[in-house]
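Checklist before submission:
- one chain only
- standard amino acids only
- sequence pasted in full

Submission:
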Amino acid sequence: MAISFIGQASDGGTGTAISITHGLTILEDDVIVCCIGADGSGTTCVDNNGANSFTEEYDGAPSGNTMSAKVYSRIAGASEPASYAFTLSVSEGFSAMLFQFRGVDLVNLWDVDPTTTTWAANLSDVTPLTAASMSTTVDNAEGICFICADSGSATFASIDNSYLNENEPNGGLRCATWRKNWTTAGATGVITAIPSAAKKYIGCQMALKPSTVSNIIIEVATGPWR
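Returned file contents:
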């Protein structure tokens, strides 16, 4: 079955403290994905969510880049906090974007893992900005495209391949995420995003794996058997 997109939230600014007050109704076993872009290639990130901690999927940058990217995931428990917090190692411009999904495979979250995705990068000011192609292995994988531009002001005018629900907070580093259900497994092709001005960038695609578990209702007969 296809994954359901439930909602999104974001935070952006300059400093070390990231706090995403989401305003979402999160149910147990929903999957939360958080993408963080920060200025500085050596800027690392710490999860400050205590008992509601996230799994770090990626925290780094392509070699020689001036930005860094972080991807986190969490399977929600019975009670989730109103906000999620992370701390950067250095005071930098950042953008943090959060997605809420339902119907994800809870044993194997990722069809295309962000730790093994080829991250596209360019250290020269260019346009368009690209995210490398990925190959999904199952139908209805939920794609997430994540691109960071080395700017606090450039905006993204468009993205191709029918990606939806842009999440682009106003921050010290301009980043954006988009999502798309890939109904048929296979190569997605390179994704291009058009910024308002040519910029250095990093970008990637990743995909969540849909659950194969269906809810089965069993009716129990009462009364005498015939």
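Reviewer check: DSSP finds no helices and 17 strands in the chain.
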